[in-house]
Q: What sequence folds into this?
């Protein structure tokens, strides 16, 4: 996935447009992408990319998550 595609996906998941993905937006994004299994576990695992521990993912953290 290139930078433009990553930004588009980030913006799609960031439904309130604040430039950060919160846990609710992340869960909704996983559901929209057809995530299977235990959603809570997947979200918790993804939030490990929250490098500054502020409870949200900014674009850089999101990029790291998807590498």
A:
């Amino acid at each position: 996935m290139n930078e433009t595609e990553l930004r588009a996906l980030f913006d799609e998941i960031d439904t309130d447009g604040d430039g950060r993905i919160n846990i609710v937006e992340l869960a909704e994004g996983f559901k929209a992408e057809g995530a299977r299994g235990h959603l809570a576990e997947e979200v918790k695992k993804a939030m490990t990319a929250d490098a500054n521990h502020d409870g949200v993912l900014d674009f850089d953290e999101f990029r790291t998550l998807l590498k």
